UniProtKB/TrEMBL annotation:
Pfam families: DUF34_NIF3. It comes from the Bacteria. Homohexamer. The lineage of its organism: Bacteria, Bacillati, Actinomycetota, Actinomycetes, Micromonosporales. Belongs to the GTP cyclohydrolase I type 2/NIF3 family. A divalent metal cation binds at residues 70-71, 109, 236, 240. Keywords: Metal-binding. NCBIfam families: YbgI_SA1388. The keyword ATP-binding does not apply. GO terms for molecular function: metal ion binding. It comes from Krasilnikovia cinnamomea. This is GTP cyclohydrolase 1 type 2 homolog. InterPro entries: DUF34/NIF3 (IPR002678), DUF34/NIF3_sf (IPR036069).
Length: 283
């Protein structure tokens, strides 16, 4: 009886770097291996959007050898990882538990398939193309920020918002939409994560609606006043969580490692109360 060899951290990192080259990341980003012994074996991987105390403990409890996270733990410079700091506690906990940490962020955003492809698939969009084609090292092969696609048949904005709420992971924030509820939606642009920097690109793409996260009041208001496409604002975590399934499936198929996907909702907003009209009685 023979068993497949167990890959090392070095081998898993090499595979991840091949799928999501670090050169594709934005200059300000911090991607790749954050911590871990290169020669340590990797039998189980936990895929997460955020490396936070809850997902760190989830990895330890699951006996994972590696966390692959979308958002960097150490995005901005630090002068200390002392255990009395938020990031320091996470670093110490991971090292003591022999859990390595790898990050694929903006390099996974522009990849094909990448974060926005998984988001588009949840919404049944087809004929995908980049919202903003990649330039430089990542240029070509359908890579870029966001995706533009088509629904099989037109639906109203209200129905499309309901579809998004049902297909995306549930959060307290849910889905907000801006525009005429009866507007027919056929072509849609999506962007995993914060997306109001690409409102102009969505308008230029001629889509009927644009779905992303973290839309701000003034950019959204001015976009709509200028006749731009309808807007759908979803929770940041919910827009990027679908990518974890694709990532985990690839890790299993390519490296033969056991992979888990974290469904812990790490969106910071935990309560949503619908506003009452003045005429409604208070209880």
């Amino acid at each position: 009886m023979t068993t497949d060899p167990v890959p090392t951290v070095r081998e898993v990192v090499a595979a991840l770097d091949g799928r999501y080259p670090r050169a594709w990341a934005e200059q300000w980003d911090r991607v790749g291996l954050v911590l871990g012994e290169f020669d340590a074996p990797v039998r189980r991987v936990l895929c997460v959007v955020d490396c936070v105390p809850e997902t760190v403990e989830q990895a330890v409890d699951a006996r994972a050898d590696l966390i692959v996270a979308h958002h960097p733990l150490l995005l901005r410079g630090v002068s200390s990882v002392a255990p009395d700091t938020y990031k320091g506690r996470a670093v110490h906990r991971l090292i003591k538990a022999d859990v390595a940490l790898y990050v694929a962020h903006t390099n996974a955003d522009v990849a094909n398939p990448g974060v926005s492809d998984a988001l588009a698939a949840r919404l049944d969009l087809s004929a995908l193309r980049p919202l903003v084609p990649a330039e430089g090292a990542a240029a070509g092969a359908g890579r870029g920020i966001g995706r533009v696609g088509e629904l099989a048949e037109p639906v109203t904005l209200a129905r499309f918002a309901d579809l998004a709420a049902r297909r995306l992971p549930a959060t307290a924030a849910g889905v907000r939409a801006a525009g005429d509820p009866e507007r027919l939606i056929r072509t849609v642009a999506v962007c995993g994560g914060a997306g109001d920097g690409f409102l102009g690109a969505a308008t230029a793409a001629g889509v009927d609606a644009y779905l992303c996260a973290d839309l701000r009041h003034h950019p959204a208001s001015e976009h709509l006043a200028a006749g731009g496409p309808a807007l759908l604002d979803v929770a940041h975590w919910a827009s990027e969580r679908p990518w974890l399934d694709e990532l985990a499936a690839w890790l299993r198929a390519d490296l033969g490692v056991d992979t888990l996907v974290s469904d812990l909702d790490t969106d910071p907003w935990t309560v949503h109360a619908v506003s009452r009209t003045q005429k409604e009685p208070r209880t």
